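agent: user wants the structure for Thiol:disulfide interchange protein from Croceicoccus naphthovorans. delegating to structure tool.
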Amino acid sequence: MSLAAVALLAGSLAISACDRQSAAPEQPEAEASDAEAKESGFNGTLDISQRGAEMPDVEIVLPDGTTKKLADFKGKAVLVNLWATWCGPCVLEMPMLDELAGRYPDKLEVLTVSQDLDGAEVVAPWFKEKGFTNLEPWLDPQNELGFDYATQVLPTTVLYDAQGKEVWRMIGGHDWSGARTEAMLADTLAE
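agent: tool returned. relaying tokens verbatim.
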């Protein structure tokens, strides 16, 4: 293999996260502590290229069949996190997202929306096992959000203001417990 091919392969692997088009590989379940999350080298990219875009007209569903459109959450800021049970960075983020949702219950709705192909069959037991107190196991059975966001990367997290306008998106894993997160949310939560 040529040096250029090796460099290209290494670069591709370095910038990729969990892609949503591959079949769900068998991965060991990751447990996240604050120290592990900070040491994991989350390298998500903050993207503001879609700032001001309307929240997509997409319906999400809970395992019990309850459905809501994203627009139903307007009125306070909404953080939509696309994730999957088989995605290592996604799993590491979940406890931090649960804690973040608990910090701002009146100002921020945190929606973790699974892109798992097996839906409630895998997501509901996973959520039950983890015992999250501030998150619900939302599903996107048709992967409409994944197609709408068009990043082809999990996790992808998008912040909307109270009027349903996109503020920014984080493409890839992020430490949601750090000072950077507080700074990224400050203006939107102050509205």
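agent: one observation worth passing along. The CA atoms of residues 32 and 186 lie 25 Å apart.
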